[in-house]
Structure formats: C-alpha cells, structure tokens
C-alpha cells in the first residue's frame, strides 16, 4: 500500500512529465555542470588536492558535452520561432523585433555550436573549431541582448499598467491587476536569468574578466530558474 501510494503520487507523475522533456533534462544537467564549475574553482582556490578537484572538472566537461549532443538540430526550432514572431503582426512592434532578434541569435548560436560537436567530443579535431565557438558565443550574446531589451521594455510597460490599475482603485480591475503582477514576476525572473547568463559568453569572449567561481554561480542560478520554470510548465 505504501509503495502504491508513492508510485502513484501526483509528484511522481509530475516528475515523470518533467524528465520526459528535453528542456527539463537539459536544465538539470546545466545546473550540475555550472555548480561543478564553481566547486572546481572553489576547491582549487582553497588548495585542495588534485584528486578532489578532478571529479568536478570531469563532471563539468562531461555534462557540457552531453548537453551539446542534446542540442544537435535545435537551431531549427529557433529559426521557426523567429519566423513565427516575424509573422505576428498583432504583436507590439518592439516585442516582435526583439523576439526575432533573440530567436535568430539563439539559432545561430546553436548552429555554430553544433558545427563544433566533432571537435568538442574529440571525435575529429579541426583548426576552425575555436573560431566557430567564438562566433557561437557572439551569437548567444546577441540573443541574450535582445532578450534583455525585450524584458526591460515589458517590465516598463507592465509596471505602468500595474500603477494605473492601483491608482484607479476599481474593484473590477482586481483580476487584471493580479494578471499583470503575475506577468511582472515572470519578466523579473527572465531578466535575472538573462543577466546571469550574459556573464558566460562575455567571459568566454574576453570582454569581461570574471573567474570560474562567479560564472559558475551565475550559471547555476540561471539553470535553477530554468528548472523551476520548466517544472511549473509540466505541472
């Protein structure tokens, strides 16, 4: 009876839905990848032996490669999303423009990242891989920049709407006010995630000097936000 209660518990069903999604598995692996990056840095800085650091370095590398393999072909999804956003004539022009830019940035990031799969996995090394990875980081940064612009624009407009509803004091606007607050919270979470993520390509490109500790924690934070968001979507 106890076993049946556990097996058929709603949380177990929710978990199965979550891990059945590629996004869910990717976010979990990403969390472990970046947390391992932070731990490897921390252990190195605290003069721990190499035998203690190596498992986390290996975890970071292995999960990074696994995620790259899982993303093969995903650029098509982003290209389609860019086309859909471009055709959404009823959408706010600024949001439509930033949506297209974001999806194209992510699409080219995925495409260039896919092109380096053989080199990253050491199946076949080729000299152009470092340059392609650098361009992939530029494309990722471009996508994140458009995402940040979209988030800031949305936050500004939603904040104005929330203020207007609050000042109006109309009881009939209570439902709309709650909806706006919910949208505001979603935008805040996405902005935080983008700010954390932007540390990764800017560091890889050498535009900012951040150590693996900061990048690891930033990546872990954005990954956990992604896990939480995907968990809610599969509820």
Q: Considering DSSP H and I runs of 4 or more, what fraction of the residues is helical? A: over 70%
What number of structural domains do the residues give?
A: 1
Uncertain segments of ≥5 residues (pLDDT<50)? Answer: none
User: If helices are DSSP runs of H or I spanning 4 or more residues, what is the number of helices?
Assistant: 10
Terminal Cα span: 25 Å
Mean pLDDT: 91
> What about the largest sheet?
none
Structural class: mainly alpha
Question: How many strands?
Answer: 0
Shape: globular
| Integer-rounded radius of gyration | 21 Å
Q: What share of residues are in beta strands? A: under 5%
Give an account of the 3D structure.
83% of the residues lie in helices and 0% in strands. It is an all-alpha fold and 235 residues long. The chain has one domain (1-228). Helix 6 packs antiparallel against helix 8 (129-168). The two termini are 25 Å apart. The mean pLDDT is 91.
Question: Could you give a quick summary of the protein structure above?
Answer:
The two termini are 25 Å apart. The chain has helices at residues 2-7, 10-19, 22-45, 50-70, 75-87, 93-115, 117-120, 129-168, 174-204, 212-233. By secondary structure, it is mostly helical.
Note the main attributes of this structure.
mainly alpha; 10 helices; peroxisome; Peroxisomal biogenesis factor 11; membrane
Lay out the secondary structure.
Blueprint (H helix, E strand, L loop, with lengths): L1 H6 L2 H10 L2 H24 L4 H21 L4 H13 L5 H23 L1 H4 L8 H40 L5 H31 L7 H22 L2
Helix pairs in contact: 3-4, 3-10, 5-6, 6-8, 8-9, 9-10
């Amino acid at each position: 009876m106890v076993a049946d209660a556990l097996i058929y518990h709603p949380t177990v069903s929710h978990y199965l839905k979550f891990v059945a999604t590629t996004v869910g598995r990717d976010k979990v692996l990403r969390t472990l990848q970046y947390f391992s990056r932070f731990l490897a840095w921390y252990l190195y800085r605290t003069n721990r032996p190499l035998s203690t650091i190596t498992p986390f370095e290996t975890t970071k590398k292995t999960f990074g490669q696994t995620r790259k393999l899982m993303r093969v072909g995903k650029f098509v999804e982003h290209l389609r999303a860019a086309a859909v956003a471009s055709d959404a004539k009823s959408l706010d022009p600024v949001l439509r423009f930033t949506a297209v830019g974001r999806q194209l940035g992510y699409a080219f990031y995925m495409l260039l990242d896919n092109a380096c799969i053989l080199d990253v996995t050491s199946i076949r090394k080729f000299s152009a891989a470092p340059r392609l990875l650098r361009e992939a980081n530029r494309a990722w940064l471009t996508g994140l920049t458009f995402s940040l612009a979209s988030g800031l624009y949305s936050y500004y407009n939603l904040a104005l709407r929330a203020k207007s509803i609050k000042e109006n004091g109309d009881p009939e606007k209570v439902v709309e006010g709650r909806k706006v607050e919910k949208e505001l919270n979603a935008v805040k979470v996405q902005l935080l995630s983008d700010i954390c993520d932007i540390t990764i390509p800017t560091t890889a490109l050498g535009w900012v000097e951040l150590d693996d500790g900061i990048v690891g924690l930033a990546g872990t934070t954005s990954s956990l936000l992604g896990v939480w968001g995907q968990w809610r979507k599969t509820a």
